[in-house]
Request: fold
Amino acid sequence: MWKHAVASVCLLVAACEEPPPPRAPGEIVGSVEFGGKLARQRCVICHKIDDRGGIVGPVMTEAVKLAVDRSRTFEAIAADLKAKRPADYEKKRVRIEAVLAEPDPERRLTLWLDAHLVDPQFDNPMSRMTVLPLTDQERADLVRWLMSLR
Ligand code: HEC
Reply:
């Protein structure tokens, strides 16, 4: 019962936020629900989500497909960057090589998405996506939500 009461109050008070989900030791557990809410506030300026939003970036479901492709072919992307823009590669080496070092495809996609949110230019100096100020928890929520769009 009290939960319903709290929910109704939250509907009226915009600033009323539920606490983030608990973290496992050493690992931030993202919430699909929080990620979706956040994306609808912060990413819609450029990406369409559920048919609403900007057109600067690809529709979010398409953006996720692009991310899946990039993380699957990341060896080639990194090699290409290293060959064609060695200075850019060198600047972002630590982040790039952390993604390369992950053999598990799911974990690699998680890492790639997280790196893309921290620094959209890390593997693509031409990216027009801006850096958004996000906490570690917010990034984990967004990554979980993005993975759920597949
Ligand atoms: C200022 C506009 C802008 C904002 C804000 C923005 N994006 Fe993007 N995003 C882009 C553009 C443009 C691309 C297309 C590729 C590129 O230029 O990086 C993109 C690409 C992506 C991709 C696909 C990766 C790729 O390499 O193509 C993902 C995933 C993504 N954005 C997620 C997000 C999420 C999640 C948010 C909110 C936290 C967000 N974006 C906010 C502009 C934006």
